[in-house]
């Protein structure tokens, strides 16, 4: 189902939690709602779910305006950070519980045969989450990752048109999170269900999302694919939030970037910077002189921190080139950068 949100706003007292947010989401997309704490992510999710009433704005599910519909009428599935399974019910019963509202909507013929219908659907879902063998267990007999899969199955049971996930993996350790991310991506691809998930974790969003919505202080900073966000950030906030960015004062002083407006705010990414000795940097004529401040071992690479005049930069260096000692004089070359001035953004390249 396609989702459209128009000029959505919500205040709590005098605090503007969501401020004129508009976006559209295509059918079957997996979309990450991302941003710093307090940015309004959960509030938007709750308004989509019908758990919170907007002050203004419109919500469309497909062609249908849903502002006045109850959460049940909206046909959504919801998974929270804490699995919220019923402790006294088995895995099977927890999933079957998700079907109760659905049963009421089914034609009489199927309802009369309710037990068989439920059995078939629960078994399908158990297979989908890969937990068919654990149907008779209770939640306290499951790992965190398994519990969260059951919560997914319960949310999916009534075949919702939209799946809303609020930090679904936040309570898991790093390894389980990684597994569940991959699993979620696969499952959404298979089911083709439009899904919106809230996360703090940019790495998580970049890895699995088709699109990301970046929110800050109740406003939408940018919507786009992870690649777009990374290569074409539209605001300094997005540039700093997605991936590693280094702010460069006075970019116009760097060779190749003389055209940069002097009052623009400029950023580079570490992989756009080359730092090396005279032998290693071929285009010395375009480079500036700097000095190494620190060299840290990062497994496959060295992280080199260097200073050029007052600007601190860092870049990665292949491990086989060996470390650079602090105070070594180096050549520093910028290959790309991007700059922002007011509402304008400029991707820049050193050609
Ligand atoms: P987090 O990542 O910390 O969960 P978030 O981006 O999801 O943050 P929200 O939970 O949407 O942010 O909250 C946005 C702002 O609105 C916060 O400053 C929060 O304190 C405030 N807020 C949320 N719900 C209420 C409420 N019921 N009453 C008053 N203020 C609220």
Helix content: 25-40%
Topology-level CATH name of the largest domain: Rossmann fold
Average pLDDT rating: 90
Strand content: 25-35%
CATH architecture of the largest domain: 3-Layer(aba) Sandwich
Q: How many strands appear in the DSSP assignment? A: 19
Shape: elongated
Describe the structure.
By secondary structure, the chain is of the alpha+beta class. Helix content is 26%, strand content 33%. The chain has two domains: 3-241, P-loop containing nucleotide triphosphate hydrolases (Rossmann fold, 3-Layer(aba) Sandwich); 246-349, Beta Barrel (OB fold (Dihydrolipoamide Acetyltransferase, E2P)), CATH 2.40.50.140. The chain has ten helices and 19 strands. It has a six-stranded mixed beta sheet, sandwiched between helices. A five-stranded antiparallel beta sheet has the order 13-17-14-15-16, with no helix packed on it. α2 runs parallel beside α6 (144-156) and α5 crosses α6 (144-156). It is elongated and about 80 Å long. The two termini are 45 Å apart. The model has no long low-confidence stretch (mean pLDDT 90).
SSE map:
Elements: E1 3-12, E2 15-25, E3 30-34, H1 41-49, E4 56-61, E5 64-65, E6 76-79, H2 91-97, H3 100-105, H4 108-112, H5 114-128, H6 144-156, E7 162-166, H7 174-191, E8 194-199, H8 202-208, E9 211-216, E10 219-224, H9 226-231, H10 236-241, E11 246-248, E12 265-268, E13 273-276, E14 288-297, E15 301-308, E16 311-318, E17 329-334, E18 336-341, E19 344-349
Parallel strand pairs: 3-8, 3-9, 6-7, 7-8
Antiparallel strand pairs: 1-2, 1-4, 4-5, 9-10, 11-12, 12-18, 13-17, 14-15, 14-17, 15-16, 18-19
Helix pairs in contact: 2-6, 5-6
The chain binds adenosine-5'-triphosphate.
Residues 12, 15, 17, 35, 37-43, 200 line the site of adenosine-5'-triphosphate.
EC number: 7.6.2.9
GO molecular function: ABC-type quaternary ammonium compound transporting activity; ATP binding; ATP hydrolysis activity
Subunit structure: The complex is composed of two ATP-binding proteins (OpuCA), two transmembrane proteins (OpuCB and OpuCD) and a solute-binding protein (OpuCC).
């Amino acid at each position: 189902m396609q989702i459209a949100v128009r000029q959505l706003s919500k205040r709590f007292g005098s605090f503007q939690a969501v401020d004129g947010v508009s976006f559209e989401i295509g059918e079957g997309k997996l979309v990450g709602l991302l941003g710093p704490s307090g940015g309004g992510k959960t509030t938007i999710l709750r308004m989509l779910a019908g758990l919170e009433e907007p002050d203004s704005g419109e919500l469309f599910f497909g062609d249908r305006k849903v502002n006045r519909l109850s959460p049940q009428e909206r046909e959504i599935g919801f998974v929270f950070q804490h699995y919220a399974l019923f402790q006294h019910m088995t895995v099977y019963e927890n999933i079957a519980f998700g079907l109760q509202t659905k049963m009421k909507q089914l034609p009489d013929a199927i309802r009369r045969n309710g037990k068989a219908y439920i059995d078939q659907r629960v078994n399908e879902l158990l297979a989908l989450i890969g937990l068919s063998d654990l149907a008779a267990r209770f939640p306290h007999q499951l790992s965190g990752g398994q519990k969260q899969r059951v919560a997914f199955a319960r949310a999916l049971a009534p075949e919702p048109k939209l799946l809303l996930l609020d930090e679904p993996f936040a309570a898991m350790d790093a390894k389980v999170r990684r597994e569940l991310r991959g699993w979620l991506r696969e499952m959404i691809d298979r089911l083709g269900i439009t899904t919106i998930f809230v996360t703090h974790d940019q790495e998580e969003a970049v890895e699995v999302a088709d699109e990301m919505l970046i929110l800050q202080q109740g406003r939408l900073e940018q919507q786009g694919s992870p690649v777009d966000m990374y290569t074409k950030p539209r605001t300094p906030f997005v540039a700093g939030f997605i991936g590693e960015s280094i702010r460069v004062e006075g970019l116009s002083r760097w060779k190749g970037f003389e055209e940069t407006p002097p009052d623009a705010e400029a950023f580079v990414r570490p992989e756009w910077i080359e730092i090396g000795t005279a032998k290693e940097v071929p285009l010395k004529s375009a480079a500036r002189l700097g000095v190494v401040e620190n060299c840290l071992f990062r497994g496959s690479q060295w992280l080199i921190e260097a200073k050029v005049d007052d600007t601190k930069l860092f870049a990665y260096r292949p491990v086989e080139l060996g470390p650079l000692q602090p105070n070594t004089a180096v050549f520093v070359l910028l290959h790309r950068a991007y700059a922002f001035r007011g509402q304008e953004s400029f991707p820049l390249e050193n050609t």
